[in-house]
Specification:
Blueprint: H1 2-8, H2 13-28, H3 32-47, H4 53-69, H5 73-87, H6 95-111, H7 115-131, H8 135-147
Helix pairs in contact: 2-3, 2-4, 4-5, 4-6, 6-7, 7-8
């Protein structure tokens, strides 16, 4: 009986989101090995997580962001596909996820030398980050935006 309970137990989406926050910090710090290891762990957790569309969208955004760090052309192609998938769900992105969408999209466009599109995306991200009550995200945004 204990075994059956174990199989039916779902992992809280909050626990998975916390692990994703750790993953995002590793991505931001360009800790490649740690990023890949955390992504593998999170994929396993997602298989057992209670359904939560917001967490799944967060995963897609972080997967997209991680691919931006990779110089491999195959990863760029996968990032493009991921972005198109996220574009289809943009209306579901609220709060910080909407900010991440525009911020990461700006990074993507900048990396692709589409500077006008990058600036447009960064400007939308700037509006979204100002709506957040998160000084750390605001600081990161301005650091990255000014650096580009």
């Amino acid at each position: 009986m204990g075994r059956k309970e174990e199989v039916n137990t779902k992992i809280s989406s909050i626990q998975v989101a916390d692990k994703m926050n750790e993953w995002y910090r590793a991505i931001q710090n360009y800790e490649v090995e740690k990023s890949h290891q955390l992504q593998r762990e999170i994929k396993q957790l997602l298989n057992h997580m209670e359904e939560d569309q917001t967490v799944l969208l967060y995963y897609s955004l972080l997967d997209f962001r991680m691919r931006l760090n990779d110089e491999n052309p195959e990863q760029k192609e996968k990032a493009t596909k991921t972005l198109k998938s996220i574009d289809n769900n943009e209306e579901q992105l609220t709060g910080i996820l909407n900010y991440y969408y525009w911020f990461f999209k700006g990074m993507y466009e900048f990396k692709g030398h589409n500077y006008s599109a990058a600036i447009s995306s960064y400007k939308v991200a700037e509006k979204r980050v100002e709506e957040l009550n998160d000084d750390i995200e605001k600081a990161e945004y301005y650091h990255i935006y000014i650096m580009n």
